[in-house]
Amino acid sequence: MTTSTALAALLQDFFQRRLINERGASAHTIASYRDSFALLLGYAAQRLGRTPSALTLADLDAPLILTFLDHLETDRGNTARTRNLRLTAIRSFMHHASLRDPTCLPIAQRVLAISPKRFDRTALDFLTREEIHALLDAADRDTWSGHRDAVLFAVLYNTGARVSELTRLCNADVLLDRSSALHLHGKGRKERIIPLWKNTTAQLRAWLPRIDPSPDAPVFPNRAGKPLTRSGVEQRLRVAIAKASQHCPSLATRRVTPHTIRHTTAMHLLQSPVI
Prior knowledge:
This protein has 275 residues and is mainly α. Helix content is 55%, strand content 4%.
């Protein structure tokens, strides 16, 4: 089974049956795998001089996959981490293809033998208490967007949540009746309840009347009422850091991302005498 029709059928079966029906993969995982194959098929089509619809599984052999992975790093400027994520998607598909059609096994085995690339992991960075407080005080609460940003950063620091968890947060996930907590929906469909500090609770109570009260409405919307995107959160954080650095100069030389605040939460909890 090496025709283009067979490749298309295997890909469709992989996404619809394997990822969605059997594994219950999250929308984020499906989107990541989709992007990986969009890049791979586009690269293969250009390299082999065919249209994507004319490609066969035999075209996606180990030598082509290896040159594709090199292309990601050298031409697209992707990191080794991103390269490995693309390889994970390809390997998952090849494993599925070999089970669905045993004639694919020789090709799949050679691709599955490709190892992830090793890379140096940077030390986890975090902010000092002075720096995090400067950041939390930076947003202009007199404006709608500044008020949102102040609450967003306070919740991010309080919970140590991932950006994806906060951008998916809706009103129904804010629990302020009997006990103050947030219901977070994490990676791999994992859910957890995170208690809120009194100050964070007060900020959320003041913020919620300024947004759509519908249960499924986002807690942190953009001006159009849609959930903030990851890039939107990162952009607002850059603005806040630039302002905070005027009062806390050490921030001017720091590269602060939402994940930095997540690490900061963990480190400050470890440093706390109550731990």
